[in-house]
Each structure stands twice: as C-alpha cells, then as structure tokens.
Amino acid sequence: MLRKLSVINFILLISFGSTLFAQNKIYTTKKINPHPPQIDGIIDDGAWAKVKWENNFTQYQPNEGEAPSQKTSFKILYDDDNIYVAIKAFDTEPDKIERRMTRRDGWEGDKIGIHLDTYFDKRTAFVFVVNAAGVKNDGIMIGDGDDFDDSWDPIWDAKTSIDSEGWNAEMKIPLSQLRFGNKKSQVWGMQVIRDFFRDSEFSIWKFIPQENPGWVSEYGELHGIENIKPKKQIEIAPYLMTSYSNYEKEEGNPFATGSDYTLNAGLDGKIGITNDLILDFTINPDFGQVEADPSEVNLSAFESYFEEKRPFFIEGKNITNFAITPGGSPWSQDNLFYSRRVGRRPHNNPDLSDGEYADVPENTKILGAVKLTGKTQDGWSIGIIESITSREYAEIDFDGGERKKELVEPLSNYFIGRVQKDINKGNTIIGAMFTTSHRKLEEGKFDYLTNNAITGGIDFKQYFKDKKYFIDAKFIASKINGSKEAILEQQLSSRRYFQRPDADYIKVDSNLTSLSGTGGNFSFGKQSNSGFRFAFNVTWRTPGIELNDVGYLRQANSIFQYTWISYRTSKPISIFRTININMNQWSGFDFGGLNLFNGGNINTWVQFTNLWSVSSGYNIEFDGISNTELRGGSSMKEPGGKNLFLSIRSNRTKKLYSSVGLSLNNGNHNSANSKRYWVDITYRPVNNLSVSLEPMYSKRFSELQYVTESEYNDNARYVMGRLDQKTFSLTIRIDYNITPDLTIQFYGSPFVSAGAYSEFKKIIDPHADEYANRFMNYASSEISYDTDGNGTYMIDESGNGDTDYSFDNPDFNFKQFRANMVLRWEYIPGSAIYAVWSQGRTGYDISGAFDYLQDMDALFSVKAHNVFLIKLSHRFRAEKWL
Fold it and tell me: What would the 3-class secondary structure string for 457-471 be?
C-alpha cells in the first residue's frame, strides 16, 4: 500500500495529488502496423521513428516548478492490441543509477512510469511504473489521487537497459488490461513521471502545483488513438498444491501423529463481463504462501484487528471499502466489510471428556467466491462480492478408537455490494453499500450466533473552490436477527455492555430476537499538499449498532470528535527540505451524554536536505471516564496522562539506512507508565539483496489492570491488579531477488511477552474524585495463594477463614516464533510456482518472569511445527479458445 512506496515524494504523489496550471498539455501518438517494437529496453526499433521525443518535465519535489536536474524524454505508440511506451531517463552519472531488485510493487530505486486515465473521468488512472532493474510496479489511482491501490497486478511487459546517457525503459501494455469506451477516437488523461532516487527528486510531464488538491483531474491528454476496440478478457488459473507438515507427536492422540500430508487443487479466474466490469472468481482457494499475522498479547476487552493478506481479497479492495471514520484513531478501523470474516477460524470448540481427542479445522474452508468490480463509462463504480464457506466438523476420537463428528461452524454466506457515482466532473460523489450474512443454523446448534445480519451505508462528498475544500458525510445502519441467546450475547458483549448498572439509557432485554443501530461520520476541511490545511470531524455509533458479522466494529455507544490543523512547506528552506506541523484536539462522549475523554496533540515531521528526517510529538490526555474498564460493571473514572514520542530516520537512498524511535507515557497520579523503544535497520549490500532487522522492546506498568469479576455477598466484586509487563520482538526480513520474476523472501519473528501481577485490589468507589479512593488493596490476611494446587488466589474478605471467592493466577509468559520462506517464480506472466517453508513455535507458562536469554532458549526448545508446501498455478488466456 501507500507506505510501501520508497520515497516521500512518491507517497505524496499517489496519496494526495494536486492540480495543474490552467493550460493543458497534449501528446499525440501514432499507430504502428504491421511490426511493433521489440520490448528489450534498447529503443532501437524503426517503429519508434514514427513519433518524436517528448520532454519538458518539471520538478514536483523538492524544488516545485523548477527544471529537473536530469532530462527525461518519452514516446508512445499503439496498435490494435497494445500501447507501447519508450522512456529515456538521462543521467550524467550513469554509474550511480540505483538498480534495486525487489519483488513486484517494491517501489525502490530509480523509477519511470506512465499514468493513463482511460475512462477520462478525471478521477481514476491505471499506473505502470518500472525501476532501473526492470521491476514492475503498478496500481490504480482512485478518487482523483485520494487513494492508490497497488494490489492490482495486470499482465504487461517492461524491459530496461543502461547506456552512457542514462537508462531506458520499454513497456507493452495490452489493451485487454485497460478499460475504455467503444469510441472511434480516444482521448485519455495522461501523466508521465520520474523518480530520481539518489536525490529524492520527483518530476512530472504535466506540472501540478502542490497547493492544489486534485491529481488525475489535472493530467495532460493523450490523443491520436483511433479505431481500437475493447478487448475480451477471459483468464483461468488452475492450481495444484501439496504440503507436508511435521510437528511433535502426542502420545495417545490419533490426530497428532507427528506428520500430515495434504493434496489440494482449485481454480482462480477472471472474466471481462463488459469492457468496464471484471468478474474474478475462486473455487477452493488456498493461501498457504501468505505470511502469518504478527504475534501479540491482547489484554484489552476488544477484538484485535489484523490486515488482510490473501490475494483474492486484497486486489481491488478499495472498491468494496466503506471505512466510516478517516484518520488514525481506533474508530478508523471500523468498516462495513472486514474480509477476514470470510474463512475465519470456526466459532465452536468441542467439549472433550477424559480420553477424547479432537481434530478441529484451523480455518473455515471457502467453497467459492466471486467478485465483480469496475467502473462504467457514465461514472458508476461497482463492487460486488459473494462467497460461501462450508460447514466444518471436528472429528472426535473416543472409547479407544470410536469416531464421531461435531459441527463447529455452520454453512455461511456473505454478500457485499458497493456503488459510487461521480457527478459534476467529480466534484460530487455519492455512494452506497449493502452487506448481508446468513448462517444456516441447525436446531440446537450455535444458539449464541446470529443467523442473519444486514448492514447498509450511504456516503456523500462535495468539493468546493477547485477541490480545495470538501464536505464528507456517511450514514450507516445495521440489523441482526437470531435467537434470544444470540441477541443477549450481543447486548452483553464488550462492544456494548448494556448490563452496566449506571447506564439508565440502555438496558438488557433477554427477550429480544433482533438488534439494530445506526452510525455515521461528518467532516469538512481544506486539503492540499502544501500550505495551510485543516479538518473537523465527528463520528458516532449508537448503542445497538453491530457490524461484526461481515464488517469490523470496535465499540458501539460512542461519539468521537476531532479537529486537525496543519501547515506544510512546499519548497526547501535553509537546511530543511520539508517541514510539516500538525495540531490536533479530540473529545469523546457516550449516548448518555457522559464526557469520556478529552485530549490534544502537537507533532512535527521535518526532512532535511541531506534526506534525514525527524518526527516528534507530545500528547496530553485529561482525566476521563471509561465505560469498559470493569468489563460490564459501572463506568469508572480513569486518569489521563502524557505521551512523548520521537523518531529519527536516515537517508533511505543509501545502502545502509535505519530509523530509531521511542515513546514515553506517564499516567496521572502515578497510575501507569510505559516506555517503548524500536530500531529499524536495513542493509542492501548488493542491489538484489536486502536484509532488515526490527527489534522492539517495551516495558510498562499499570496500577489498575483488570483481572476478573467475582461475587461477594450478592454483589459484583471487580478484582484489579498491578501489572508489570515486558515485551521484546524482533522482525527479520531477507529478500533475495535473482530476477524480477524469481525471488526468495524470508520472514522470521521471535516474540516474548511476560506479565507479573501484584498488589491485587478491589474496586470500592469507581467514581471517587480522589484516585486512591477508587480501590482498596487486599490485606495480607485477606489473600492467599495456593502454590500446591493449580495456581489459585483465594480471597477471604469476611475474615472467617473460608474462601469467599478465588481467581486463577493471571501471570503469564508467552513466547512465539513465526517464520516462513517463500521462493516465487513467475515463469510466464500470471503463472507462478511457489515453494514455501513455514515454522511456528509457541510456549506459555504462568511464571510472569521475563529473561530474554532464558526465554529465547525455552522458545527454541519447543518442538517446531514445520510446513513444506509446493504450489503451481498456470494462467490460460481462455478468450483465445472462443
């Protein structure tokens, strides 16, 4: 995604954009027949003589509006099947050209490319970029440059070469990969770009000042394309996969024999329904080559959010995206579609008796999925996904060899539909989204799950004054249906806590069989890439809203408001290349009118002319109130705090570069404290090898960490404790790129987190003005620890020698190692062979002690679970069969 792009100027290009001078710029191409140029990067074919070289590029950054330090020229030709592009990137020091070899979409090194707005809607562009090593980078520019999707991987060809004048690139872009109208004469928007890597200089053919917010709308134009016809696209890619697993044998368990072997097959495909709409489909997909999720210890009441990594769901995900709240707050993850719901881990785990063993699927199998995406000539963007996941059964061994099956996941269907319409030359955008999920629940099974869920949303965006100002509004609604038990489960969940005794505006109704709610977002502001910018935003979720059958919702019953003010320079000043200063203010409420939190922030990002950068910031959070701290109990006053963060990053154009950072948090009233330090080191000894290390260490304590809820004298007793936690992680990445199409990648990450609890206490007055009056530590005579049993704390509040209530030792030491190595060979465009090795090790105990050397030794003493996988997929151009 955007953060993958190699240099700040390129990030600015694709994520924000700007607008150009009033005078248009036009390039006229010519048709070649019958002999197209050979794509070898040399640019010596006679066909290129039909058109003249075009140049006159302008710096976009750092010296906006000035002539580039190096000249760039290009030519464009076409025939009935392809667009041909030749670009000469002149360089007075060709031995310094940065030829960084990466996998596709690595966005590293010297780059040149072309953007084509073939819809000519002035909002959408297909991007084709190649670096000096011949690595292809591509994607789709969306929303006039507001977003960029580099998950789109079209089939096209590019070759490069270096000579005494600089470096050259030739591209062949099949018309079947583009979307355009069936017209006699085509007029397309066009931009040609160059990223001069060692000076971090970005230049463009059609100049666009940074102060203007538009990007695609301000491209130049490509003329001269006549009498081409939209191309049929029918591609199918069957795959065959075999894997072998090796792990620790468990005596007596017939399902843990120490090794497993699997053979699997499936089919992926792509069909051009029209020239505007593409249907992707997958049958029995396999994602064995996908990198594992990062390790974590989640002590909060909320569900973790993980990024999607499966190719079918990544490609074109922008079209089915309905993020409700912009920015980087926890509310920003809320979305009507969270694709990780499809193919998730089964909901149920069978209850086993002594002597019983179970084989439970790790994930729900996706029987099939289809995805229809595209943009019509009259401005409608369309995205539809339909998927079905299978019933999943756990196989249970009992009575020394008898077998039975138990349902652990019902047959489920997921539907997502998204439309958007551009009006008034893209100055007005309206849209809607609709999702449903249906589970086929068998009688007496999964009473705690909803059987139907519906969500919908509408969005509206209006630009003013050449798109410098905007109003953005979204409204969403949801309804879920299920048994009384299922809806009661939703009312009591951490997203709502309707059972809170001090919330008189919500209540638990155990007779409900449905639940509904609404939410939305409203913002207005000024956008540009330089100068003064601002935004005001308010977002809300009513208590009854629920998105988590298909989407993601962190917390309902919330109103969140923020104001953002920013100033960014567009040209170097003294030793500074770029200066960016931001100020933020925020506050939050619930639907009972309770002011939950208030805070503010000031932060800066500065890049120097030597391409080093520094970012820093200071946050302040005032004392507030938490509705979730007691996990369904009363709301509770909580201390605010202060946070300071600082990071320094070296010049990324060098062979060795790094960043270091720290974050320091201090809670008011000595209630909490945390320190986090990280380093990111990347070394590229040669152009096709990259090694990176990312160690992180954190240490924190919290005076009031939730432990459990018990009952004493018919009253709820909320037990808290002081938590001292230490965490260390190390992420190792090694990328070896033999060619742009033959790569080896290694990922490995050991992770250790240990937490020790002490000074256990009970909450006595959660709303006391004085922090110390909100809780009371257990006296030594009230608490004892059963060291001979299962590690249980026993509480005797009454003092009569009997245990009034108890809780398990919450101390933990969690260790995990995850690694995989992937060899990928794209032997022809769109067809690939994968050879994958992955390993996992996990250890856990209740010692609570952190000792890095001992923990690492213990972690790698755990028997590894190894998986060896080979996958072959082959792409066929099926339209040739018709």
Answer: EEEEEEEECCCCEEE
- Which helix or strand (DSSP H or E) is residue 721 part of? strand 715-739
Residue 161 within any structural domain of the chain: yes
Looking up tokens 């019953």, which residue turns up?
Answer: 557
What is the residue-averaged pLDDT of the chain? 92
CB 341 within 8 Å of CB 309? no
Choose among 392, 449, 7: nearest CA to 197: 7
Alpha carbon dihedral 207, 212, 216, 219, in 10-degree steps, equals: -30
pLDDT in the model for residue 322 = 95
865-873 and 234-246 strand pairing: antiparallel
8 A C-beta contact, residue 863 and residue 869: no
CA angle 423, 428, 432 (to 5 degrees): 85
Name residue, tokens 């060809």: 157
Contact 621, 641 (CB under 8 A): yes
Domain membership flag for residue 727? no
Q: Residue 197 — pLDDT band, cuts 50, 70, 90?
A: very high
To which residue do tokens 């309905």 refer? Answer: 322
Decide: helix, strand or coil at residue 17.
coil
124: tokens are 């959408």
CATH of the domain at 26: 2.60.40.1190
Pairwise CA distance, residues 554 & 334, whole Å: 7
> Of 819, 684, 689, 687, whose CA–CA distance to 744 is shortest?
689
Q: How far is CA 876 from CA 80, 271, 414, 880, in A?
A: 21, 12, 29, 9
Q: Residue type at 218?
A: E
**What are the counts of helices (DSSP H) followed by strands (DSSP E) for the chain?**
4, 48
Q: Mapping DSSP to helix (H, G, I), strand (E, B) and coil, where does residue 552 land?
A: strand
At residue 538, φ and ψ (nearest 5 deg) are -135, 135
Query: pLDDT tens, 428-471?
Result: 999 999 999 999 998 778 999 999 999 999 999 999 988 899 99
* Residue at 199: amino acid letter: D
Max CA separation in the chain (angstroms): 101
Candidates 770, 803, 774; CA nearest to 786 is 803
**DSSP secondary structure of 409-464:** E-EEEEEEEEEEEEETTTTEEEEEEEEEEEEEPPTTS-TTSEEEEEEEEEEEEEEE
**Which of 335, 284, 277 is CA-nearest to residue 306?**
335
- List the structure tokens of 362: 């790790």
Whether the ω angle into residue 346 lies within 30 degrees of 0, i.e. cis, is: no
How high is the pLDDT of residue 233?
Answer: 84
CB-based contact 385:279 (threshold 8 Å)? no
Question: How far is Cα of residue 590 from the mean position of the Cα atoms in its chain?
Answer: 28
* 803 is a domain residue: no
Dihedral of the alpha carbons of 539, 542, 547, 548, in degrees to the nearest 10 = 110
Q: Scan for tokens 């997921």, then name that residue.
A: 414
Q: Which residues, at least 6 apart from 822, have a Cβ–Cβ distance to it below 8 Å?
A: 289, 744, 745, 834, 835, 836
Q: Are 373 and 319 in contact (CB under 8 A)?
A: yes
Amino acid at 176: S
| 3-state secondary structure (DSSP) of residue 487 | helix
Bridge partners (DSSP) of residue 662 are 646, 677
Number of domains, the chain: 1
| Cα-based distances in Å from 247 to 105, 612, 863 | 35, 46, 7
Domain of 136 in residue numbering reads as 2-226
Q: For strands 613-621 and 656-667, give the pairing.
A: unpaired
Report the SS3 class of residue 171: strand
Q: Nearest to residue 56, comparing CAs of 211, 209, 203, 215?
A: 203
Tokens, residue 765:
């007055």
* Residue 197 counted as domain residue: yes
Asked if 319 and 382 count as a contact pair (C-beta separation under 8 A), the reply is yes
Q: How far is CA 673 from the centre of its chain?
A: 29
Confidence of residue 169 (pLDDT cuts 50, 70, 90): very high
Dig out the tokens for 10 from the structure.
């390129």
